[in-house]
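Please, structure for the following, as C-alpha cells.
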Amino acid sequence: MTDFVQEPGFTALRLLGAASGAAVSLVYMLPKSRREAASRFVTGLACGLIFGPSAGLWIARQAGLADLLSTPELLLMGSAAASLSAWWVLGALTRLAAHFGAPRGH
C-alpha cells in the first residue's frame, strides 16, 4: 500500500478523484453560500487525498473486485468515494451534536 504514495502520477490520480468526489457532493446538495461551497470542497479534497488509497482497497475487497482493478483505478475510485462521503459524514455528526448538545427545555 505504501508503494504508490511516492509516485507523482498516483498523487495526480488521488487529486483528480478527490476533486471529482468533492464536485459531486456539491451537486448532490447545493451549498447555501460560496463560503460553504469552498469549505465543503476543501474538506472533500483533504479526505480524498488522505483516505483515498485505503478506501479504494476496502471498496474493492468488499465488492470482490480487488484482483480485477489496477492500482490507478483503485486510487481514483477510493479518492472519489472518500471525498464524496466526507461531507455526508460531517453533516451527520453535526446533526447529532446539535441534537444531543442542545440544552434541555429549550
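The radius of gyration is 16 Å. The chain is about 75% helix and 0% strand.
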